[in-house]
Write a structure and sequence with these properties.
This protein is α/β, with parallel strands linked by helices. It is built from seven helices and eight strands; from the N terminus they run ββββαβαβαβαβααα.
Amino acid sequence: MPGSRKIDCKSSWPTGQDDTDVPHTTSIVPRPATNHRVTTVFIRYPHKATTMKISIGGDHAGFPLKAAIIDLCRDLGHTVTDRGCHDETPVDFPDITRLVCADVQAGNAERAILICGTGVGASIAANKIHGIRASIVHDFHIAHQCVEHDDVNVMCLGAKIVGAWLAADLVRGFLAATFSTDEDCRRRVAKLMAFEHLRDDAVPAAAIPAP
């Protein structure tokens, strides 16, 4: 399998497996063996090795996590724009969302990360902005699949839902992933973006191409 390396675990899947020292950015895919003593798994490495421009922002609930996320992105080689907030004074998350998403719209950021208490408010606000595809991300599979299948460009984290260690893994997965070239994924995202005309041009839903 390209971009992978094979390791063996000494115990069977899914009843258990030995701890395996692998980078945080990898995911483990089981391949059951014919006997019940050895399981072959593949370690998938990140797809995207290039650096990007990232816009990051959060409200007062997200502020305690934001600094660690910014430091991680910079350590990974990305260029970061910090859109606030800059302390725990209460602010309105739509205001921060607008600033961060404006960077994506203008091409000043290739992806963005929003951090609020749960990620819900930020994702609602972001998805009302033209050209933005935002997703709440609270597990590693969603972190990369939301990009691979849905071309998500704004990741929304809940600082009160995930801790700093998990958040770091989620950010790595999100930034490493790339949009699939599979024609089904491309077609579905194109249809998704056609929904924006309902707001922008008052086009009836019937005018959107049928599935």
